[in-house]
Amino acid sequence: MKKIKITQVKSTIDRPENQKRSMQALGLHRINQTVEHNPTPQILGIVDKVKHLVSTEEV
What we know:
alpha+beta; three-stranded antiparallel sheet; 2 helices
C-alpha cells in the first residue's frame, strides 16, 4: 500500500482549536516536520481539513 508524506508548512498559531487538534492527530507539532501515513479515509479527511497548513505527496 502506498503512503503519503505530510509536511507542515504553516503555523497553527491563531487557528481554530479543531485545526490544532487535527494537526496533533496527524503527529505534526512544528513547521517543516514530516510524517508518513497510510492514505485511509480518516487520514485523508483530516488532511482535507488542514490542507492550507500542510503539503502532501505520495511516497
